[in-house]
Every structure is written in C-alpha cells, then in structure tokens.
Write a structure and sequence with these properties.
The structure is a homotetramer of 142-residue chains. The first copy, chain A, has 142 residues and is α+β, with helices and mostly antiparallel strands. The first copy, chain A, has 3 helices and 7 strands, in the order βααββββββα. Chain A has a single domain, classed as Hotdog Thioesterase (Thiol Ester Dehydrase, Chain A), CATH 3.10.129. In chain A, strands 1-4-5-6-3 form a 5-stranded antiparallel β-sheet, covered by helices on one side. Chain A has a two-stranded antiparallel sheet with strand order 2-7. Chains in contact: A-B, A-C, A-D, B-C, B-D, C-D.
Chain lengths: 142, 142, 142, 142
C-alpha cells in the first residue's frame, strides 16, 4: 500500500516551554496539528476544502508518548502518516524527532471524524469527496 | 464617580510558566480576560449578553507592564476596573497582585470596540443597550 | 480499595475556544493538569513537595477521548482519579463533565514517572516518600 | 542610522483562533516572539547567547494595536525592528501584515531589560557584550 505522509520542521517557541525548561507536554498536540496542516497542503486535503465539502473533522481521540525532552532553541521534525481505515474516520500517526539530537522526542496519533456543518451529524460512511480523494491518491488497503 | 470593578483569584498553571521558571509574559492577557469575565458576571455585562444584543467586542488595543515575576505554585489576584469614556469603547485597567508576596506583578489595560455581528461594522456611537446598562449602574462621568 | 480522587470546576476561557466555536481539543490537557493540581492540594502530593523530595514527575503518556463539545460560557467539572500501580509511575484517569449539559465531554489519562532532579535518572522503583504517602493514605492494592 | 530588522512568515495555527473565528488577540505576542527569535538568528543576538553572557532579557512592557482580523488558513508576515536606545534596554517595534489581504493586522512593541542570571539584578547600564554587538553592527544613534 502506498504510504501517504508529510513532514514539517518546527522551531520550538519560548512560550511553549515550561518551568522544567522543556516543551510542555500538551504542546505536542500543536505540533501534530502543524503536521496535519502540512499534509493537507501537500496532498490536497486542507481543512478549508473539507469545510467547503460540508464537513468539520473534529479530533475525537488523541494520544502522545513522550520519549525525550525538547529544549528551547531546538527544532523538531514532525512526520504525519495517514493510516488507511475502512471506517469513516481519519487516523494520523506522528513521529516527532529532535533535530538537535536526532532522537525521537515523541510519537502519537489522532483520530478525526466527519461531522456535517449543517446538520451537525456524524457521517457514518465515508463522504463521497473522501472516496474521490482516496481514489485519486491510489490510496487503498491491500 | 462610582467605581466599577471586579477581582478574581487565579492559580497559575504549570503550562503557563516558561523556561525562565516564571509565568510567560503573554499569559497575563489570559488573566485579564478572566477578570473581564468576572466583571461581566458581577455587573451584568457578559460576552453572550452583548452578543445577544448583536455585538462582538473585539480587543483593539492592549498593554502590559510587568513589575515582578510570578512562579508556579503561586496565586494571583486580578482586579479589572472599568474606565468611563464618552466614546463608543470599553476600556479596562488591570492590576495583578501576587498573593504569595503581595507585590504587584503587573498592570495593564485593554480597549474593546463594538462590532455589529451582522454587518461587521464598527458602532461609532455607544449602542443603546450599553447606555441602558450605564444608566442602571449610575455609571457616568462627573 | 480506597478510591483517591479530586474534582475541580473550570470556567472555559475564551482564548481556549477555536474557530469551530468550541474548546480546542488540546486544551483538555490543561484541564487535566488543573485536576492533578487539585488532587495534589487535597491529598498532600503537590508538585513542589515532590520537587522538594528530589523528583520531577514528567508526563510520559497521555490520551484524550472526546465525547461532546464544550462551548464558551460553559463550565466543566474535571475529576482526577489516581490508579494504583505496583510500578514506579503515577497514573491518573480523568472525566470531564460539561456542567451546562451534564454530559461527559471527555475522558482521558496521563502517566507520569519519577525523574531525579540531580541525576536526571528514572526511578525504577517507587521513591521512599511515595511509599510513605501511599501508606498514609492506606492506599494499596487489594 | 542603520535600520536593523528581520521578518518572518507565520502560518496561523487552528489552535490560535478563537470562537469569533479569528486569531485570538493575545497570540500576537507569540508572533512577536517568533520575529524576535528570527532577528536574533539573523543578527547574532540569540537568547542562548545572551544567557551565555550571564543575562536573561525578560519582557517588562508590551503593547499591541489590532487593525484587522486574521483568519485560519491565512499567513502573516511579522517584521521586528530594533529601536536604538541609550538606556540599558531592548525595544522592538512590530508590524504584522496579513499575506492574504496585504493589510496590516497589528502593530506593537516590546521592551526587555537585562537581568543577571546569577544575582537576579537589573543591569542599569548596557552590558559590555551588548556594546560590542552594537559596535559590530555599526548600530548607533546619529
């Protein structure tokens, strides 16, 4: 199966560090968001496009595993890989690497669903525009 | 002139500290927001009421003066005082006191304007509901 | 087994909402932190005490499950329950309830480890002060 | 007089928007920080260098003037210009331009002082390393 992924480099903000001198654990969800954003840009699946198709894609689940600290002044690479699922959801896996040490700082995942902008209802099957997008990417289970 | 003010106690969050071990300077704008919120509750001028009257009240100006650091584990008192203005705007002054030391940690101010929810236009004169609210508070220049 | 838990009420900040009009998903980790803090206060296990004993307790793992949105102007109750573990780690489970609707907004968990302040080494067995604290709480597996 | 400035492009994060659908006003201080950072990189005056010289440079004053909203999906250019001062302080002026509209979104300024890492004392006159840096930049009042 084709692997769909994107990687973004992020310079850690001073405001993102905490009194232990490292990036506050919750800020990794912002880094994941940046990587999803980059994925959207590179693979033609941007938030505003999805919204244009009548859907929000709220996060319903997220997890982070911290492996090593990231300090102020360091940069990280965040790789987002889309996982194929039959079900009507979007699952990304993330790997955050500290550029200063080449060590993995964190891994994680997020799950999003499709929610109708007008009716606020959950799309129980994949919306047609997503099936089209998957076909265009030659993105399928094997 | 009557003084309209409200005070709120805030326990500093660990996520609000930075690598210098103190509350990151930008987070004081969140403390100001909490104090405005408390003011709205206590004086009957809540964000959602204002929205119900057809207005947003975006911040157009803010400033902060830092006097002393606040450390994790400390609590602050934030006092918001409404300043009377003839012009169609809302101006709050703030004083942030560190409860652990009784020292003033910061002062500041914010200016908000009235923006129509429907037309996105600036209200150049005070909206009637604000004049009513001021009358009810016996809130006027002397 | 005795259940050790604490609950805190949090008024959602305007700055914590996002362009979908609801609390941004990552901010729940701040709510979890507030609940841990409250737990520390109520059960005598505060961050600064732990630091005084020579340990940091960094988060190594966290997850959030979102069940329903929380809107600006609403308050949430966050309950943190400590889970008993033989291993040298601190595991909290969280339930976030929307006070306006009584619906569960989110659940989640965090895992913390003990890291020596001086040597930066992981404590592979529970530090003595924690065993003392557990004994005092009559906190044990049954 | 030579003008010392740096400009950085920032993609607005979804988590930085608020329930009015625009970037939350306080987040501009993060954009200012990014621009200072860029300035430090480009002009050889990085936070960690300054720390290495024995000084913190905490923000003691900041202000923001908002001119127009920035929406999710938009990018901003933030220009930081260093202002020459005889006094022992660092003053930056900022201009935030919305790339999507070319409109100025905000302007602002920050003032930093030199605080000794060891003694926590304010440097009432410019530290020697700053005078050296100014000389190297041919940075002086005329």
């Amino acid at each position: 199966m084709k692997i769909l992924e994107s990687t973004i480099e992020i310079a850690v903000r001073f405001s993102e560090t905490d009194a232990m001198g490292v990036v506050w654990h919750g800020n990794y969800l912002k880094f994941f968001e940046d990587a999803r954003e980059k994925f959207g840009e590179e693979h033609g699946l941007e938030y505003l496009d999805v919204y244009g198709e009548g859907f929000y894609t709220p996060i319903v689940k997220s997890d982070i595993n911290h492996k090593a600290s990231v300090y102020y002044g360091q940069k990280v690479l965040v790789k987002a890989t889309l996982e194929y699922h039959q079900a009507s959801k979007i699952v990304f896996k993330y790997v955050v690497t500290n550029r200063a040490t080449n060590a993995i700082a964190a891994t994680g995942s997020t799950t999003q669903v499709f929610l109708g902008v007008k009716d606020n209802l959950l799309a129980l099957i994949k919306p047609p525009f997503i099936l089209d997008w998957e076909a265009k990417q030659n993105w399928k289970e094997v």
